[in-house]
UniProtKB/TrEMBL annotation:
The lineage of its organism: Bacteria, Bacillati, Actinomycetota, Actinomycetes, Micrococcales. Belongs to the short-chain dehydrogenases/reductases (SDR) family. SUPFAM superfamilies: NAD(P)-binding Rossmann-fold domains (SSF51735). PROSITE patterns: ADH_SHORT (PS00061). InterPro entries: KR_dom, NAD(P)-bd_dom_sf, Sc_DH/Rdtase_CS, SDR_fam, SDR_oxidoreductase. It comes from the Bacteria. This is SDR family NAD(P)-dependent oxidoreductase. Pfam families: adh_short. It comes from Microbacterium marinilacus.
Amino acid sequence: MPYPTDRPAVWFVTGTSRGLGLALVTHLLNRGDHVAATTRSVERLLAALSDADTSNLLPLEVSLTEETEVRRAIAAATDRFGRIDVVVNNAGYGYLGAVEETSDADVRAMLDVQVAGTWNVIRAVLPQLRAARSGHVMNISSILGVLSFPGWGLYCAAKFAVEGLSESLAAEVADFGIRVSIVEPGYFDTDFLTDHSLALASDVSDAYPGIREMIRTHKAMPGSQPGDPSRAAEALVAIARQGSGPLRQQLGSDSSGLAEGKADALKAEILAGRELAHRTDYVR
């Protein structure tokens, strides 16, 4: 079944009290859609939406790493709105630090939220989407799920994992009429690079001065990012409304340009290594 046009669509969105998630929820409510919005703080979410009509909002305080809580949230959304049409896995946070400086606890915390949390939502919602033979799972990755930069190793590891999960999922559920999209934003004018959403490695050394400088540059960036969160929200609705579309969609001219460059560089590397690759086959 395509995106509904004869009734309000029902969206289940994670990570909604800040950033792109908040921009999306605001846009959906203004459109008259129905929204189940998960957050770690319902109070913060409602404060951020103080100027919006929240009559079609179901705010849900959920720890996405707790599978039982996620299943309860999916059930609550279904009970309130009757169904779920679009799932947006958006929850997450940034992390900056050299690979060597990244602690075991930081690795596990990041992967728990970005990967296990996304997986929990997908597992909980798929039975009803399969039964309805419709629905759309939209996983918010990043341009850093396509390529990596120094200092972003942990965040990239999580987003690369989301990309692999999503690509497999798309092939598995296509026969059930379920679409999967991977969304790859660039730099948007949100609080992603502030202390609210960006964690830093705590046990650092003087071995990586370039990363220290990169962190200082990023901490000074808020307010200068090229991406408009409101337009990103409009783009997410446009993706959902498409009857079909690419598996991956970049958001932002910076993301688009970097992805194109990565594709060109990857093809060049593959072609340069083709002869050696072929030499490792059995000679028959």
